Amino acid sequence: MLGINIPIVAAPMAGASGGLLAAQVTAGGGFGFLAAGYRSADSLTSELSLARGLLHLNPSDPLPIGVGYLAWQLEKPTANPEALLSAALDNHVQAIWLAFGNDIKEWIKFIRNYDAQHKRPRPTTIFVPVSSVEEALVASDEWKVDVLVAQGNESGGHGYGSAPPLFTLVSSILAALPTGGPPVLAAGGLMTGSQVASFLVLGAAGAVLGTRFLMTPENWPTGVDGRGLYNNTVKDMDNGVDVETVKMKFEAGVRDGDPGRMLVWSGMGVGLVSEIKSAEEVIHELGDAILQRLKVASELAR
Ligand SMILES: Cc1cc2nc3c(=O)[nH]c(=O)nc-3n(C[C@H](O)[C@H](O)[C@H](O)COP(=O)(O)O)c2cc1C
């Protein structure tokens, strides 16, 4: 579906994934998303041009990266959703990711209409993250999305506190989806090729990694929780330090860029990262490890 060799997708991470990261992941053999996050249409266009240049593509070529939207940003009364979505579509991106919103169905309709009007031979691949079987069935059966991203509780950044652990979520979604349903990608806490291989064996089509590629802060609507590093801000809250003092120290931490105080989004697997490497190297390393583990798994079946 995506034309990639290594079944790894880099999550769109607001404030963290730009054109550079997305292009590097795709160049490495995975599939990179850039985060629309809180960007304007102009900023999105310039990140897309950056990615296009890095991938040595002409302006008329399809762009083999995706753009991930925070749907509630499109739904704000002051937003211009058509301009934001068109920035990606006019740049002929291969995929669009729509997360956390009330009108996702509308945005999907907009994208499908755009593809039809522009007679795109290959329609835009639509990804939607889900954190329950119910959401997965709506996205699959009603919205007809192309890819489901099962976002487990281990996921870094925003997500539903009510999400089950990834293993349970992926297993339940796969059991509930009808035959011929959309492929399911596993997201949340995944750092290594062995972990990804284990989800392939379970029946997932691939994995979405966020924290492995980067980390960053933001701020949010009801129902959506967040997972970040356990630092002195959280420790003070746990120890009952009064909120005003915690806030004051937090603000000072943000001013000083102190990760011991500021918010650093991160998934549950962060402890498994021991070195900083380029996104391309990460993709290659993951690809090799996935193959190696799958070979071991097939040996077991002999
Ligand atoms: C720094 C950061 C920012 C994120 N921003 C977004 C976002 O803008 N949109 C979105 O759908 N998910 C966002 N996520 C969640 C990812 O889509 C993905 O589910 C998560 O990173 C997977 O877990 P992992 O970080 O443990 O790999 C973000 C995650 C992180 C770590």
Automatic annotation (TrEMBL):
One of its GO terms (molecular function) is nitronate monooxygenase activity. It comes from the Eukaryota. Transmembrane segments: none annotated. It holds the Pfam family NMO. InterPro entries: Aldolase_TIM, NMO. The keyword Manganese does not apply. Keywords: Dioxygenase, Flavoprotein, FMN, Oxidoreductase. This is 2-nitropropane dioxygenase. It comes from Boletus edulis BED1.
